[in-house]
Amino acid sequence: MATPLEQKTNQKPVQFIVQRQDGPDGKAYDEAFEVPYRPNMNVISALMEIRRNPVNAAGEKTTPINWDMGCLEEVCGACSMVINGTPRQSCTALVDKLEQPIRLQPMQTFPIVRDLQVDRQRMFDALKKVKAWVPIDGTYDLGPGPRMPENKRQWAYELSKCMTCGVCLEACPNVNDRSNFIGPAALSQVRLFNSHPTGAFHKEERLEALMEDGGIMQCGNAQNCVEVCPKGIPLTTSIAAMNRQTTLHSFKKFFGSDEGRTGEAVSR
Amino acid sequence: MANHRDFVGRKIHSLLGVIPIGLFLLSHFTTNYFIVRGEEDFNKAAEIVGGVPYRLFLEVFVIFIPIILHGVYGVYIAFTGSANTGRYTYFRNWMYVLQRFSGIFLVVFITWHVWETRIAAAMGTAVDASMMQNIVDNWFMLAFYIVGILATTFHLANGLWTFCITWGITQSPASQKAMSYVAALVFIGLSFVGVRSILTFAGVL
User: Fold this and answer.
1) Which residues of chain A are within 8 Å of residue B80 when distances are taken between CB atoms?
2) Residue B149: its pLDDT value, please?
3) What HEC string does chain A produce?
4) pLDDT at residue A181 is higher than 90
5) pTM of the model
6) Cβ pair A218:B168 closer than 8 A
7) Taking 60 as the threshold, does the pLDDT of residue A180 lie above it?
8) What number is the ipTM of this complex?
9) How far is A247 from chain B (nearest CA, A)?
10) Is the pLDDT of residue A97 over 50?
11) Which of B84, B89, B101, B175 should we substitute to test contact with A (largest number of A Cβ atoms within 10 Å)?
């Protein structure tokens, strides 16, 4: 009698269909692969197996598949790809839990570098645009900052789990060639840094950035982002919160207020 | 307001859909509903609405300009989006797509509707119950009007839901969900009023 584990190892090879592309301007094509089954394998270990022996399902020698990866524990966001139609991280995509043939595609929202590797530069540009950091550098010691209430820290921590993986941009119908929408991730980061007691010193600058073209108003409220986020970040709550903050900010700026005079200085 | 054209544009687009267009729709549907009480009552109501003081001013600033701005900007918004309901079948994604499709359809429907009512009236057709009775005297036009009414009520109800997010009123998931139910009630209520009126005009009810 074989043990359950042995039965599993006797399973048929795992079927893959990989969408490939030889370069940024190349044409996309599908290539099928068969990978010997091993217990507990994930998509990345299968891709590594193909790299070790780059032969496709037809038995022809081919080039190894290109993909991106980093931490292998779903915190870096680098290995995102579309697996069986769902954008997610390939490191936590367990073969046992996937329907075969397993279909791997690059995320379409981003420029393709090669095969499954995409260029997520636009996300990092968006973080720069909205100033998603707390500026504390100076010429002298500024001393300790204000304390953050514990209950606020708890929800802000959830927002800090964003790993810029790109899954929310991939699922968003308003992130495409015809719009310059920066995407849900950066909007949520403004909420994170605006909620930080020291970060709040630069609240208005971030809101101003969100009000520019491609900013918060490009959101169409399809709310796919919150459904697909692998970290369960309340992206749509963040977007609504930023809608409120930018609305109030624009009123204060237009009608005048002693708070939020940054905008005045910027427009001058 | 250097680069904030889109920001102001989208906010105003959202606001126009509710005030004044949503309010106008409420008044329009209410007037039409008089047909349920009979032709005579409807004709009286139409006469009062048609005879309000400074009517042209109200028509231009409360109806024509807001609808044209909302429509033109809305078509632009619709064409900068992309439908991906094939891959993401979530309820809200369907609402997103339906909002855009209903909007595009309404540009056609409202243009047609204004042509054969308001412009016809300007050309001399009398505005009374017989005007609408003649328009929906065939099944094709009746169906076109029913679809038009449902597209309108859906677009307004779902637009109220997005309005509350766009203006930062509903932030929490709980309040957004509660607003979904409110929007559903608005859709059902207005659809009942609109469809019952048009069926009465057509003589079906």
Assistant:
1) 174, 176, 178-179, 218
2) 98
3) CCCHHHHHHCCCCEEEEEEECCCCCCCCEEEEEEECCCCCCEHHHHHHHHHHCCECCCCCECCCCCCCCCCCCCCCCCCEEEECCEEEECCCCEHHHCCCCEEEECCCCCCEEECCEECCHHHHHHHHHCCCCCCCCCCCCCCCCCCCCHHHHHHHHHHCCCCCCCHHHHHCCCCCCCCCCCCHHHHHHHHHHHHCCCHHHHHHHHHHHHCCCCCHHHCCCCCHHHHHCCCCCCHHHHHHHHHHHHHHHHHHHHHCCCCCCHHHHHHC
4) yes
5) 0.92
6) no
7) yes
8) 0.93
9) 6
10) yes
11) B84
The partner residue sitting opposite A213, judged by closest CB among B3, B11, B172, is B3
Render pLDDT for B112-125 as a digit per residue (tens, 0 to 9). Answer: 999 999 999 999 88
Q: What is the pLDDT of residues B47-100, one digit of tens each?
A: 999 999 999 999 999 999 999 999 999 999 999 999 999 999 999 999 999 999
pLDDT band at B5, cuts 50/70/90?
A: confident
Which of B92, B94, B175 to mutate: most A Cβ within 10 Å? B92
- Closest-CA residue to A168 (of A193, A192, A189, A195): A189
- Name the more confident of A189 and B6: A189
Quick check: helix, strand or coil at residue B9? helix
A106: left (phi over 0), alpha (psi -120 to 50) or beta: beta
Q: Which two three-digit tokens encode residue A32? A: 């099928």
A215, A224, A267: residue with CB nearest B93:
A224
